[in-house]
Amino acid sequence: MRRPTTRTKARTRTAVATALIALGAALLTPAASAAPSASAAPSASAAGVPAAPLPIADYCGQQCADILPPGQSGNATLAQILAHKAFGTLPAHTSDQLARYDSLVAGYPGLTDAKLNEFFNDASFGVPADQVESTTSPRSDVTITRDKKSGVPHIKGTTRYGTSFGAGYAAGQDRLWQMDLFRHVGRGDLTPFAGGALANQGLEQQFWPQAPYTEADLQAQVDRIRTAEGERGRLAMEDAQAYIDGINAYRVQSKNGRYFPGEYVLTGHINSITNAGEIQPFKLTDLIALASVVGGLFGGGGGGEVQAALSLLSAQQTYGLEEGTRVWESFREREDPEAVLTVHDGTSFPYAQKPADPRGTALPDAGSVTAEQLVYDRTGSAATAAAATPPKPVKQSMSNALLVSGAKTASGHPVAVFGPQTGYLAPQLLMLQELQGPGISARGASFAGVSMYVQLGRGQDYAWSATSAGQDITDTFAVELCEPGGGAPTRTSTSYLYRGACTPMEKLEHTNTWKSSVADPTPGGSYRMQVWRTNYGIVTHRATIAGKPVAYTALRSTYRHEADSIIGFQMFNDPSYVKDARTFQEAAQHIGYAFNWFYADSREAAYYNSGSNPVRPAGVDAALPIQGKQSYEWQGFDPVANTAAYTPPAEHPQSIGQDYYISWNNKQAKGYGAAGFGMGSVHRGDLLDQRVKPLVAAGGVTRAGLTRAMADAAVTDLRAENLLPELLDVLRSAPVTDPAVAAAVDKLAAWQAAGTERKETTRGSRTYGHADAVRIMDAWWPLLVEAEFKPGLGAPLYDALRASLTIDEAPNAGHGPTGSHAGSAFQYGWWSYVDKDLRTLLGRPVSGPLARPYCGGGSLPACRDAMTATLKQAAAATPAAVYPADGTCAAGNQWCADSIVQRPVGGLAHPQINWQNRPTYQQVVEFPAHR
Predict the structure, then answer these.
(1) CA angle 135, 136, 139 (to 5 degrees)
(2) Rounded to an integer, what distance in angstroms lies between the CA atom of residue 210 and that of residue 545?
(3) Which residues in the chain show pLDDT less than 50?
């Protein structure tokens, strides 16, 4: 690669200052790209290193496919960033999967098995000789071969060390800057590294309090895996060290060779002229920090009990103790009999259920709760009004899976279409790779920075994926405050009663200072983040109970165990361990985070729910705060290591050979208590179930047929498909006489008849079919929900319930870990409440109804009047009012408001694409043979 001249460098500084996006303006803070494309690094192919031969053990017969937009490479040198800004050019393989991913929106109706690879990559093992683009051998015992079509690294090692080293080296090639960013996010010191942009402040303020650690804490987790997890733990840490060595080898080579990511220059870490500066070495404790970010985004579950307590108190204040509790429970929907299930054969897996005789519940005094302060001692740009409420990513459950057992497929072999929804970044959080070495044989996706193993993908004769499960592995405890000297405690006291002794809390803090840079011109500033740690977790709120001051703490079962799940992933990659569905389930038992795992080979489709589910004492209600006393602790609780007794594997939802499985973060099985609000009669999982069930009933399911079902659900409006029929029935329960309302009803009915899709009229038109109906629904939904429920609930309870479960999550709303333009939609909303209330009003059967009628106070004419008035208001709303301008779209641009944006985590931008409610990384697999 040509090096920029001094004159070019002088020009580029000016260009960067005006043309480069502020690295913190995107979701994950500052820019990020990562190391240069593979072709930018020295290639061993010139030295005569042969291409890696095709592996022998691949039983998929070219029937495995995958996709991960925008592209494999996250690398951009300074010169490449500037060329992109000036001329729109992109380095190789940074965006070559985006168009294929986007094109499925228009192409899925005519999809056949033969056409799948027009929309997906061939995920076969190895690279045919005529498809080799480059070959690199960073050590004599490993070869990294990249294919021409997508640039995916196919890593083949003759030793285990070499294989893991190669994985780290390839991760450096593709994601060096991004990995560096995320280790700083996990450590809570992002702003000093990347700049004080508001998004950066928000990111570190969101994640660090969830997993605050000292360096000794991080090292202790490394040591625990190495010493307490047997031979596999020792091997995992050896693999991890080799992986770190590979990253560091590339780090040094790219720095010395001046082909490192340009963001290091733009953020002031390296001088573009002298090359002075340093990319800090990676170390094993960075993996723990990175794992805490990934687990916090996708693998947590539970929490939120303080807000649940506030909504319960509001209900009791509104209706009285008994009736208020009954009303609240009907909205909580812990065990809704109409909820869509993943295990739908009737098997029950009781966990975290409502106790018949609750004990130890710790509800606060009304009006006494305050959130714990996090940020102190603000200076400079940290002291501005905007910095007081920086944007923060919102944790959401995401990802979906569709699997059909062989008895219902055309081939007689299981078919699976599955993958995680991880937001849309450039580059992505995930990266593709193939790993082949002693004890390792897999291809798929891994989170950058912890990619020593494939985390979601395929082995020699099986494939697997996951969805966020979200079951309750986080509890809130109320600890009674005290003063060490015996004085009267206050709400600001920093000691608490632990097993009868007044025990000081541990203060954890970070002082972060930043200065402006070319990439992030935010003026200099600083602040101090502070949390208090107790044996019952991190303090989140202060309150009083019966007048006594308490602190509410959040205790997560995976805290201090951020990377323990490495053992399960190691097993997934080991062909000598995973041989069938049962051994896969046994491997998944080693993953402490809350995930739903799905498996398919040529013989079986299967499911297993993982997670360190703590065993609670009888009578403890996990949905609400718990008294911080020994009698209510998790069974076997050891606060030093944060270990406890966990429910045995047999009690986790699981299945082998069910006719089909669907998951879109819905309820897992009967009896498995929902950790939060929203698991009711209407859920986005219904969009999958309503399509897969008839396919299975007809039989002869194919890969293309199951993909079409997924893709159709991905462009469908859940509210319109599942709730619009009832809404129209209410509106039409008497003649519609208002012309404006009649016109709106006709448009909505026509959209319903056409399939309620949010989809272009023709490919590239950027105009939705039934655009007026879509606009009316978007404007109407929040109005109708308020008109239906607020009068009956009263404003305080209505607002308290909204704080527990948002009203709406349309595609154009700001939500998910990447904010708006993030694809994932319709996960959380009041869909079930509207459904149950209207069916009750219409005299239709309802299992698990709401405790009281709401729309029109139970009067159909009054409800109809409320629906009519709000529909008229919605129909009159202009496109500009419904779809306000944002940083991407002009006001009124409906298609753009929904569209997916690959949010830059670096200096490269990508075209917007059509909205799809679809996994970011996705596999389509059907194995015709088995070992």
Answers:
(1) 140
(2) 25
(3) 1-54, 815-818
